Amino acid sequence: DTKVYSKIGFYAKNLEKVDFSNQPITDNVLDHITATLKKLTGLRINNCRELTNAGVQRTLNELGPRLTDFGCAFNSSIINSDCLKGLNVSIIEILDIEECNGIGKSFFNKFVKEKTLSLIELNFSFITNNLDCRVIGSIFTKCQKSLKSVILKGSLLSNMSPEHFQTFGELSKLKYLDLS
Predict the structure, then answer these.
(1) Would you give the distance in Å from CA 71 to the centre of its chain?
(2) CB-facing half-sphere around the CA of 130: CA atoms within 13 A
(3) Local structure of 24: helix, strand or coil
(4) How far apart are CA 76 and CA 14, in angstroms?
(5) Residues 127, 98: contact at Cβ < 8 Å?
(6) CB atoms within 10 A of CB 8
(7) Would you tell me how many other CB atoms lie within 10 Å of the CB of residue 135?
(8) Helices (H), ranges, the chain
(9) Whether the predicted model's global pTM rises above the 0.70 cut
(10) Would you state the pLDDT for residue 120?
(11) What is the pLDDT of residues 120-173, one digit of tens each?
(12) Residue 18, phi then psi, degrees to nearest 5
């Protein structure tokens, strides 16, 4: 019930991370969370089919500058680059955008333009439309000392050259790699 979810911020003001994955939440719930959870640094909205692009964009415009953990996997029809403009990619530590094919090159180029990145865990599986191997290589190079977990499934793998795979060896903290 979305009314119950909306009350979370009212009763638990000190929450730093909220995972709504697979729940029937609406934009209204995100609006309440944004207004009440001032310490929120982590938000998971994976597979939340009732959300709209506008609602997620509003939320990220407000929370994005401080989010270090964000997941919106399996929301391909909702999530696009405009929606993600509010995310501060320089501080994102955990990012799960699996199967969000609406995300365009402009979002990935934000990572390329940053001098350093803080990514620890990254899942961009099955994003085939707008992600190329050069961008992946650039992201990995900028995360050499931080990235511990990479999930990269899908057809993009077939386009990767041996040099791109060599980049995995340069990730000094990498502990988990899923290419299944």
Answers:
(1) 5
(2) 16
(3) coil
(4) 31
(5) yes
(6) 17
(7) 16
(8) 2-11, 27-36, 53-63, 105-113, 133-142, 162-170
(9) yes
(10) 97
(11) 999 988 886 667 778 888 888 899 899 999 998 886 777 777 777 778 888 889
(12) -135, 135
